[in-house]
Amino acid sequence: MSKPVLAVIVGNRNLFPDRLIQEGRRDILDVLKELDIEPVILKEDETNMGSVETWAHAKQCAELFDANRDRIDGILVTLPNFGDERAVADTVKLSGLKVPILVQAYPDKLDELAIDLRRDSFCGKISVCSNLRQYGFPFSLTSQHTVEPKSESFKHDLKKFVRVCQTVKGLKNARLGAVGARPNAFTTVRYSEKILQENGISVSTIDLSEVFGMTQKLADHDDRVQAQLKEIQDYAHAGSVPQAPMVKMAKLAVVLLDWMQENDLDATAIQCWSSIQENYGVNACAIMSLMSEKLMPSACEMDVTGVVSMYAAQLASGIPSALVDWNNNYADDPDKCVLFHCGNWAKTYLSDMKLQTSDILEMSFGKENTFGALAGRTAAGPATFARVTTDDGCGVLRAYVTEGRFTDDPLDTFGSKAVVEVPGLQTLLKYICQLGFEHHVAVNASHCASILAEAFENYLRWDVYYHNLCDDECDCGCDCGC
């Protein structure tokens, strides 16, 4: 992730003491520096202490923002006093920025409500938000209506907001690669490329015949092939995997990575069976896992909207995602289930990872053609689940998000596997089935569902269902669906 950049508007109303603006500006800049966030902000001598109060100030601030538009991830509005609500909204409008906005307001102290001490930011924030809404700008709010910038509560809000900004920015400009055709039987992963493009997500395609042709032009001793071979060997314990399929995997990785670089692609979805086993003679799982671990997510079974889901969760958390099957019930526990794939999960999710054949595909295509799958178990810890899909009948993007946890419950099976617990899982599964969502879901070893929900619904305007998702500060364990 690049260093985040926030445009900062210091709201002001000249009825209030100048020292409030001076203190507020200093506090905000101190917090941004502490969190390694770069500010784009008026200098103190450009307006009244660098604040925005008038139409002329709004134009000045907007010009500054416009000059830095390619770097700015979001806008932070800070209100050391009531502020001028219209000047804030005018600044955003004149800048032309279409980025997330966070509104922060200072609290008053009970012993400082005299005419020369009070802030009235509590009231000013309501007015600023009203104007932003009138102007048509979506915005985010702090957990508490008023909050000190140097408090841990605000720092938490700000870090979350930065992730929302980076998720929105990444998805609005995402470039994906579709490698091969979907497996013929998997109509579940069909999608609308046009709906994705309408939402800023571009898809480049390549046929597997082209990929196989390019691998044949690579010599075994090619420096890039040998470097990739070493990377695979260092990445996963290969045991008794023969050298020939290892070299094939290395060549496949070189071709895919070259193609991604040529097309500036962020992620890929690959037809991982059956052509690649029948016509090339390996499983692509290890290569896909390696790419996902390096924050270039790769989805199996040519699930393009699946890799959108993986990429979104990666942007929201900063760590790799995996694409999994909602695969099995876990005995008679209604809130637990088994996640599975044969498998291509990033190393993050497989602490005891081994590179071997695919137990399932080996039965159809032979052991010699299915080396390259990964087996292992995900350790206990936090989990976020996300799924994006195109609803072609309605012409919209839909998504659901929820949180739960990986558990250490006993599990005796093969492949890439995990046991998870999701409160109210049966309700979520009903929703998935009723809305026709895919059998795949992206999982991320973090709790970032609230970030995804904010990005998807508030800023990208997708249709979002957030299941059992409470505010970050809520530990009630309720089924509120808020």
Can you give a write-up of this model?
It is a single chain. This protein has 482 residues and is α/β, with parallel strands linked by helices. It folds into 2 domains: 168 residues, Rossmann fold; 293 residues, L-fucose Isomerase, Chain A, domain 2 (3-Layer(aba) Sandwich), CATH 3.40.275.10. It is built from 15 helices and 18 strands. The longest helix has 21 residues.
Q: What fraction of the residues are assigned to beta strands by DSSP? A: 15-25%
User: Largest sheet, described in full?
Assistant: 6 strands, antiparallel, barrel
Write down how many β-strands occur, each being a DSSP E stretch of 2 or more residues. Answer: 18
- Helices, by number, come to 15
Task: Give the overall silhouette.
Answer: elongated
In short:
With 482 residues, the protein is of the alpha/beta class.
Task: Using brief descriptors, characterize the structure shown.
single chain; 482 residues; alpha/beta; Rossmann fold; L-fucose Isomerase, Chain A, domain 2; 2 domains; 6-stranded antiparallel beta barrel; 15 helices; 22% strand; disordered C terminus
List the helices and strands and how they pair.
Layout: E1 5-10, H1 18-34, E2 38-40, H2 55-67, E3 74-79, H3 85-95, E4 101-105, H4 121-134, E5 140-141, H5 152-172, E6 175-179, H6 193-198, E7 202-206, H7 208-216, H8 223-235, H9 243-262, E8 267-270, H10 275-279, H11 285-293, E9 298-299, H12 304-317, E10 321-330, E11 333-341, E12 354-357, H13 359-365, E13 371-377, E14 381-391, E15 396-407, E16 416-421, H14 425-434, E17 440-444, H15 449-459, E18 463-467
Parallel strand pairs: 1-2, 1-3, 3-4, 4-5, 6-7, 6-8, 8-9, 13-16, 15-18
Antiparallel strand pairs: 10-11, 10-17, 11-16, 12-13, 14-15, 14-17, 15-16
Helix pairs in contact: 2-3, 3-4, 5-12, 5-15, 7-9, 8-9
